[in-house]
Write a structure and sequence with these properties.
Number of helices of chain A: 16
Order of helices and strands of chain A: HHEHHHEEEEEHEHHEEHHEHEHHHHH
Shape of chain A: elongated
Helix content of chain B: 25-40%
Largest sheet of chain B: 6 strands, mixed
Strand content of chain A: 15-25%
Largest sheet of chain A: 6 strands, mixed, barrel
CATH topology of chain B: Rossmann fold
Order of helices and strands of chain B: EEEEHEEHEHHHEHEHEEH
CATH class of chain B: Alpha Beta
Number of helices of chain B: 8
Radius of gyration of chain B: 17 Å
Strand order of the largest sheet of chain A: 3-4-9-6-8-7
Oligomer: heterodimer
Distance between the termini of chain A: 26 Å
Largest interface: A-B, 25 and 26 residues
Distance between the termini of chain B: 38 Å
Shape of chain B: globular
Structural class of chain B: alpha/beta
Helix content of chain A: 40-55%
Strand order of the largest sheet of chain B: 7-8-9-4-10-11
Structural class of chain A: alpha+beta
Chain lengths: ~450, ~240
Amino acid sequence: MKLRDLTELAARNLREAVLRNSLTTLGIAVGVASLVAMLSLGVGLQELASTRLSRSGLFDAVFVTTQANMRAFGGPPRPQSSTAQPSRKLNDDARRQLAQIKNVVEVYPEVRFPTEVQFEGKPYMTTVAGIPASARGDGAFDEMKGSFFSGPEANEAILQIEFARDLTKQTDSLIGKELVLRYAEKEPLPADDAAGKSSSGHSSVADDASSSGGFSLVPREMKLRIIGVVETEPATGFGGFGRGRLLIPLQIAQNLRIAQPTDMREMLRGNTGKPSYESLTVRVSSPKAVQGVEDAIKGMGFGTFSILDATKNLRLFFTVFDLLLGIFGSLALTVASLGIINTLVMAILERRREIGILKALGAADRDVRRLFFAEAGAMGLLGGVLGVGIGWLIGRALTFGTNVYLQRQELPPIDLSSIPWWMVVGAIAFSFFVSLAAGMYPASRAARLNPVEALRYE
Amino acid sequence: MTETSNGFAMRTERVSRQYAMGEALVHAVDDVSIAVQPGEFVALLGSSGSGKSTLLNLLAGLDRPTSGAIYAHEQNLAEMSSQELAHHRSHTVGMVFQAFNLLPRMTLEENVELPLRLAEVDRAERPARVREAVERVSLAARLTHRPSELSGGEQQRAALARALVNRPTILLADEPTGNLDSVTGDAIMHLLQEINRTLRMTIVMVTHDKVRAARYAHRIITMRDGKLVTEGAADEIA
């Protein structure tokens, strides 16, 4: 029998027992819907996690330190062969070199220091962090109140919400107000002073200061205008989670020449010459390029750290998570496929005589088998399409419910479920093939019916 | 495949069909050899349980013999695959039954078209073939009617149209008048006779009606307990 005739006959048979076949198809649809809803939840949560994390600025960043500092952070000991070489300094030369590596977007130091802030006459202790201009695209600033820095050297500040709450309960009212940053600036000593001689009177520049190896600490103040309040603290450097509570433009932070705890260590080590950084953050064009950049930096003799391994673990977790959700979803489809078997076996009993007539008129076993297959496949296909629709609705309903709850908690809305095109195609195909598999036994039973006995059946 | 060159439309050679009924073995057809000439109208006569319907099913390729050979146009049905038997049922023979066996949810037109679908006849050719078949049985006006809307005689004529639509060479009829009153039954028998005469179609008809068999058939084969009892010209047997 030709495909068109087969399809027409199958469609006619399905229409004839419309209630039973509709219920069976609905059973499949519910099975597919549960599968799709479960998987869409898994994929949605995965997308939510990866979007949030990738936009946190951690996944496209490589944190660079000197080998010596890497050991201090618990890094692996350096091989014996290289211990003879002095640890390479992370200075401006190195910074320029790092910036030239392929796929590197920006290289910046971590500037973070504890200091005192005065607001409306009251002192507050807090931690200040320098934020690079490229951090504007980070997810952390998406939901901020106010605006991002107007320029790289603007005397502006963004407050982390916890710190803003320390200042006032009405955090929104802070925007536009001023606060005073009080800090200790490193002021270089002239070379003569450092040597214990009388000053020659000429003013020295920053780089010259290091050549003398000494500096004095001068208290300074700077007025900053509050322009925003941010909920999440953006990642700004190596191990820099949850520490910066007052954010200022990186360039401003660098210009302050804040005295850092490491200055003393560097001075004691006698590291005179160009100033070096504790660590640098290398921002890479995409998370995919991180591994290559990290290898190149290691090749230059620096220690590196990235969250790439963490993402791999995250992917593994979600793969297992999806698998478990898929298994639970498939259980419903298994029950549905039993429904198909039941419907078709019942159909054989009901249509026994019809099968006999078809065979008497020249239908081959193959024709009868294909007819039952076509009916099972049609129910599977229809159930699959319907199931994807219902699954999508369930996902939307879950997202809606979650967002109502989140809104009550004053949290931003999220997209809880996601149905990518491969899931639509996959679910329909899966439903189709599961239905065919379920139809296999009834179809072969129908095909093997003895026509003489079938014709005798009343 | 074994071939004979006797020019028979159908022929059986010591054909037997046995069934197991519990521990007992039933010889439904027992060592029967018959031969039907092309264009011949043969009546298989016998009482209930004589084995005549079983023999007809064997000739139709609906059942397989336990032993012996059945030749249709010199091809042995006993050696055919199930696919080849389906082809035989579709192209070589047409069947009518006592219970008409029309599909109740299909219209007359759809019922008659069904064998054409199974035989993969071109869609464009089908309407003309259906019309030709229903016109032969004078049912052209009832094409859109369902079997339940037709009388018994009309249903049997529809079944006859369905049996003829694939233009078989042999028509096998199993008690075609069994469910009809005598007048309608006679009309069906006239139709069979006309088909036999005009189309030169070979007809093998199972019946227990000796009078009708004698009136319409060329030859009567009588069976009892699965065995062939008598065989001869209709007027001789009658």
